[in-house]
Amino acid sequence: MLIGILKEIKNHEYRVGMVPASVYELVQQGHQLVVETNAGMGIGFCDDDYLAMGAEIAQTAAEVFECAEMIVKVKEPLAAERALLREGQILFTYLHLAADKAQIEDLIHSKAVCIAYETVTSGGLPLSLPLLAPMSEVAGRMSVQAGAQCLEKSNGGSGLLLAGVPGVSPAKVVIIGGGVVGSNAAKIAMGMGANVTILDRSLDVLRRLDNQFNSSQLGTSLETLYASKDVLEQQVLAADLVIGAVLIPGAAAPKLVTVDMIKRMKAGSAVVDVAIDQGGCFETSHATTHADPTFIVDEVVHYCVANMPGAVPRTSTFALNNATLPYIVSIANKGYKAALLEDKHLLNGLNVYQGKVTCRSVADSLGLEYVEPQQALI
User: Looking at 31, 96, 106, 240, which residue is catalytic?
Assistant: First the structure.
């Protein structure tokens, strides 16, 4: 299979779909790789590094799209990229379609085979999301760093140090959602000495978090609370920093923190909306960029960068490649139809197929007709 790797063009996005070592794995199995020039420069890989692993270099994205059977990316394709997709071409990347009507309309029109990292699953109950997890780990850890900066006076915050000092109370950090993002955020916030509370509606999740953190020797304890509406409101209003870490796989994020709650939060407090890729879980959220990451609503600093892990692209790229490579190899070796039909978990990643929406949560979120993926493929 001829596989194309693009240089990402989203604002301050330096990650790359495949590192040279991943390219070498595919080349050794008889596949061809075409890499857009300077695709890896943001993480320290030059064109010669890819050439040494057996790849060819293309001068433009258009050249890559024209020849490649499968495009491997990191972020969702922007409009200029979507215009270059063709019927039957495989697109393997993060898509986050539930809050992006323009993107899904273009993907439907392209009749490409669109497989989203974020809805590929793995075994066990509940189903895990192995290609989303690495970036969720990064984003969860970064969310506390970002929130700590938002609390600084020069950034519009209250001038509060997250950890406090002897004789001065630490900040109160409230994390909504106890999944991969939430647990990683808790790890960093507790390590910094903050007063940390996690809210979730799953008692199993709360038990797991309690066992994970409160049996350790971290020197501080994690408060776990069931996320009833009343408790959620109380905790948000008492918080110095709220981290939104909710996820419904493939679907738009629920708006859990209302405009009214934001109005009543403490002046100079901060919110970090890690769910912004799926539309955000604060009613006041809108997507921002690394170039202009924050805005203020009712004296509350909002950080809503849609590609948070892009700020640490080298760590993020290697973590993502470790997870995606086996799936790329499977699709390349077997062809997309066989790979999808033989692996129900990879099949869950099929979001759009030749003009049909094949992910139920995406279809439901956008009011579109849903087609079973097996039915679409046969």
Answer: 96
Query: Can you give the pTM of this predicted structure?
Result: 0.91
What one-character-per-residue DSSP string does 285-304 give?
Answer: ---BBTTB-EEEETTEEEE-
Whether 96 is a known active-site residue: answer yes
At 169-220, the pLDDT tens digits run 999 999 999 999 999 999 999 999 999 999 999 999 999 999 999 865 555 6
d(C-alpha 301, C-alpha 75), whole Å: 26
Active site residue 277: yes
Of 31, 273, 277, 302, the active-site residue reads: 277
Secondary structure (DSSP) of 328-377? HHHHHHH-HHHHHHH-HHHHTTEEEETTEE--HHHHHHHT--B--HHHHH
Amino acid at 324: T
pLDDT bucket at 113, cuts 50 / 70 / 90? very high
Domains of the chain, CATH where assigned:
2-120+313-377 (3.40.50.720), 133-311 (3.40.50.720)
